[in-house]
User: Fold these one by one.
Assistant:
Number 1:
Amino acid sequence: GENVEQHPSTLSVQEGDSAVIKCTYSDSASNYFPWYKQELGKGPQLIIDIRSNVGEKKDQRIAVTLNKTAKHFSLHITETQPEDSAVYFCAAITGANNLFFGTGTRLTVIP
Amino acid sequence: DTGVSQDPRHKITKRGQNVTFRCDPISEHNRLYWYRQTLGQGPEFLTYFQNEAQLEKSRLLSDRFSAERPKGSFSTLEIQRTEQGDSAMYLCASSLGTSGRYSYNEQFFGPGTRLTVL
């Protein structure tokens, strides 16, 4: 099955700085890559996603890039705010439609 | 609230007891998924339904686990003879699935049911 690795496991940034989280996947058949934000005691919330036929997607302060050749995808958050503090998960889907998640990145934005 | 809902939010049980969780997906979503999340880890897939049909089960889903979606709407996940290793957050998600020639992969998660087995 698919194997998704995520780095770093923890990330601290000053408010206003950028944060980057990176993931790699193993199955070249994976074609959909969502990112989720999870706050304490809550379920994961979809924040952005990208399909395999697109290299980059942006939504306000959040962007995702995909390198299919290298099997890498990354989440970029600019102008970070304290409310961005949470655990972020990358994931990948193969044709089976079930998500394979990374191990998460705990982001702390320091005011 | 039109999101995915789960009930109960918390469940504490003694080892050996049976527990049942309920998930109500987003209306008109025909796919429903169950995941399990342990502390410090990402969610792990357990099973999914297309309407009322259970199409895939993970090897994580032992024979003590059973899931149903009898009318293609809400779903239940039952764990029989609970063990301490079953303690986790059980997450439900739903997606629109396939509509015409398009496939909609976006999965939306509920708040989860946190199970503690003593």
Number 2:
Amino acid sequence: ETGVTQSPTHLIKTRGQQVTLRCSSQSGHNTVSWYQQALGQGPQFIFQYYREEENGRGNFPPRFSGLQFPNYSSELNVNALELDDSALYLCASSLHVSGGGLSYNEQFFGPGTRLTVL
Amino acid sequence: GEDVEQSLFLSVREGDSSVINCTYTDSSSTYLYWYKQEPGAGLQLLTYIFSNMDMKQDQRLTVLLNKKDKHLSLRIADTQTGDSAIYFCAEPLNYQLIWGAGTKLIIKP
């Protein structure tokens, strides 16, 4: 258990609808990243939020948007849903860790939300 | 390019060692990850290795890093049925992780 929670676990929508997915980050983490994982593929980076600001974005259209709240929880919104948006959506919160003269950001993943678009 | 490459499948007998390979893209990556994903579950961090190391051992797991060839491997000793999962290598690029497509580890009795 990573302490990162996501809701809902499963969701079914139809084309053209809008969806909001939610993520609560691990206590003390101030950075949240969202990934899309299509069936049989590795995760693809959507965007990252740090202290309520978008900190970086992958190759996703503007109909994918997000928010981060003062308590560092986050939302992913997708407008005008398309069939290809069907995927597992993963949220990860980050903790910065240093060691051995190098540093790395350890990302802790939630269980994901399975979105099906019909 | 930005592709992290892995073989899609690996089949091993229970009790044997599993070796999962990955080729990454950026020789300046300061660390690399191995994640595990069980069916219907999210991603679990298995281990990581800093780029100034060429080997890291953690119980049954051994990570080998060849920076010259940009090759990373994960060895699982004494593979058990509970090791059945998809294994991803991932490298950091700025603020994101770049992932391979994952290697599905199949355990034969």
Number 3:
Amino acid sequence: QLQLQESGPGLVKLSETLSLTCTVSGGPISSSSYYWGWIRQPPGKGLEWIGSINYVGATYHSTYYNPSLKSRVTISADTSRNHFSLRLSSVTAADTAVYYCARLVVAAPDNWGQGTLVTVSS
Amino acid sequence: AIQLTQSPSSLSASVGDRVTITCRASQGISSALAWYQQTPGKPPRLLIYDASTLESGVPSRFSGSGSGTDFTLTISSLQPEDFAIYHCQQFDSYPITFGQGTRLEIK
């Protein structure tokens, strides 16, 4: 059974970089059949896709980012550890949200982590 | 980016009712639409993909329809566990986008 688990600091200071890792168990992230991505949800608000990564072959991967965040976002993956990561730089209060990692079939998330709340503080 | 507009934003209904939620896309997305259910403190759960295909394990009282720009999610007979927030999502083109959500409450 596929499981995804987010980890990382729950508190990030204004203007610093948010870093989260999603550890996947129950299946390899190197499978070209799936994409792996990050989605966030500010408190009481809707869902926002941040970006996704997909492996095509053993080592080559593609990344896709939301244009609204692209200048600040990097998604990377470590197939040896079967995890992928999110870095979001220059955070502001607007980046306070629950961050979910997910497996996507094409571009529809079908398995989600439990989510982790990240608060940006001054 | 393709915008998705859900209606209504909130809805009150009773156990046993039939409920329909609509999702309209700002441009045609073929059948590249998914529906999710989210309860408080939990991640979204995939209910339907490709506009009308029921995800494995999802009760048959849930159904989806539509193509192009107009889509619906129908719950044929509401159960107590169905009171939640429902989100639509398009995966026709990047960036992936979601509707603003519909809150389904108990009347």
